[in-house]
Amino acid sequence: MTTDPPSAAPNPPAPTPGFEPAALGPSPLSAGAAELPVDQAQARLLDAVRAHRRIRLPESLPLLQASGRVLAADLHSSLDVPPHDNSAMDGYAFAGAALQPGQPTRLRCTGSLMAGVAPAQEALPAGCCVRIMTGAVMPEGADTVVPFELCHRLGDEVEIPADRLRAGENRRRRGEDLASGRVALRAGRRLQPSDLGLAASLGLTHLPVWPRLRVALFSTGDELVEPGQPLKPGSIYDSNRVSLGAALSRLPFDVIDLGQVPDDPDALQAALERAAAADADAVVTSGGVSAGDADHTRAVLERGGSVDFWKVAMRPGRPFAFGSLAGGALFFGLPGNPVAALVTFYALARDALLCAAGAMQLPRVRLQARCAVAIRKRPGRTEFQRGVLSASPDAGWSVAPTGSQGAGVLSSMSQANALLVLGHGQASIAAGDWVEVWPFEGML
Asked: Does residue 352 contact residue 361 with C-beta atoms inside 8 Å?
């Protein structure tokens, strides 16, 4: 940092004591049957999270432990990177003014320079050059490097063929990567390997990051059985908690596994209280948010918190509840069907949770691809189909749905590498039409 030693964290923003937001507020959708379009649901989620995000004190982590974490403060460079003009390759350094159009250039070699060694103080004489290794400091009077392979060595002379390079080539200028005082990394960035290398190039050993978001997770349903246990008549194994837990674990979150909760209001209330006791920043559930007789999540949430919306015009995933608990934790109620749970997580909950963790909002990767088959669709909802995205012979992209698109067919999600997205106002499409695709790579 510009003023702190490498291991020190910058001054953090003033923390908000606890997570005591004003209620997200009653919504006209809370009690009605209106379905919120996907883009509006995404916007309302982010607006609510930005307004009420819980702020904890940052922590300072060693670089190798900070990968994937969210940077808590802008990182300013305290030096120029590189700190001096240096050679971009192995070759001969000389003054580019010696190059003459249409004729070879002959220079006398007067020595060698290795990386990590300071050059002599005297300037390079006119008509001379020095052997120089990649990264070595450029000597005074030299501004160009010719690669070894372009030259002819004749005793202590070097001949550069005519018109093979221009003056100033193959020199890295001081500060061309990063100038002293400039912002190297912005707060809110999820730290990638290159970011950690950049921090190391500034001499830093630690970075200030936000603590992991604490996310409580449970599944609801009397029919659910823990994997590894014998199935009872009418029961199924709980796959949602595993897939959602895995999705959450790939993000800068700590997952609090609260297990399975029966279709019982008291049991559900107790699970939410356990989440509060565990100091959860957010609660993610699957099941119990539709209009069935045993779907109690929305009713319990309305008693002990607030519901902002609970229906989204999408398929799969129409029943999706968002609100807050009495203690302030954000609540994301996902559908019970396995594919619908994952699709609503990726389309709605994921970005909102990352925002709650302090991460900056980045545009989702979207591609345009030709659809391999015709797809029937009615306007008025966004449809997410599982698909296989591949390069087509004409150098574009093509996408084909992965068989059955039922909300419970998890195998088709496993076979897919992307979501094929048909927009709210879009109608049926023909084979060969262009469609929007969200690749899983970078999203999962």
From this structure: no
CA separation for the pair 320, 297 (Å, rounded) = 11
**Measured between alpha carbons, how far is 317 from 67 in angstroms, rounded to an integer?**
32
Q: Are residues 221 and 323 in the same domain?
A: yes
**CATH no. for residue 289?**
3.40.980.10
Tens digits of residue pLDDT in 183-192:
999 999 999 9
The number of residues making up the chain comes to 444
pLDDT of residue 10: 37
Question: What predicted TM-score, i.e. pTM, was given to this entire model?
Answer: 0.84
Strand partners, 253: 213
Q: Using alpha carbons, select from 288, 297, 305 the residue that is nearest to residue 340.
A: 288
Query: Tens of pLDDT along 104-140?
Result: 999 999 999 999 988 877 899 999 999 999 999 999 9
Displacement of CA 297 from its chain's centroid (Å): 30
Average pLDDT, the chain: 89
Distance CA 124, CA 141 (A): 5
Look at strands 397-401 and 319-325 and give their pairing. unpaired
Cα gap 430→377, rounded to integer Å: 11
Cβ-based burial of 183 (10 A; exposed 0-12, middle 13-18, buried ≥19) = exposed
Given a cut of 90, whether residue 62 has pLDDT beyond it is yes
Given the structure tokens 């730290």, which residue do they identify? 191
* Total domain count, the chain: 4
Instruction: Find the Cα–Cα–Cα–Cα dihedral 217, 220, 226, 232, rounded to 10°.
Output: 180
- Integer CA distances (angstroms), 67 to 6, 64, 192, 193, in order: 17, 6, 6, 7
CATH of the domain at 70: 3.90.105.10
> Is the residue at 444 inside a domain?
no
CA-based radius of gyration for the chain: 30
What pLDDT does residue 328 have?
87
Query: Does residue 18 have a pLDDT over 60?
Result: no
Of the candidates 284, 197, 275, 199, the one whose C-alpha atom is nearest the C-alpha of residue 240 is 284
Contact by Cβ (8 Å): 9, 76: no
User: Which residues are CB-contacts of 352 (< 8 A; sequence separation ≥ 6)?
Assistant: 42, 45, 46, 48, 49, 322, 330, 332
Domain final position from 120, 149, 172: 172
- Judged by DSSP in three states, 240 sits in helix
Tell me the two tokens of residue 200: 């190391």
Range of the domain at 224: 28-56+212-356
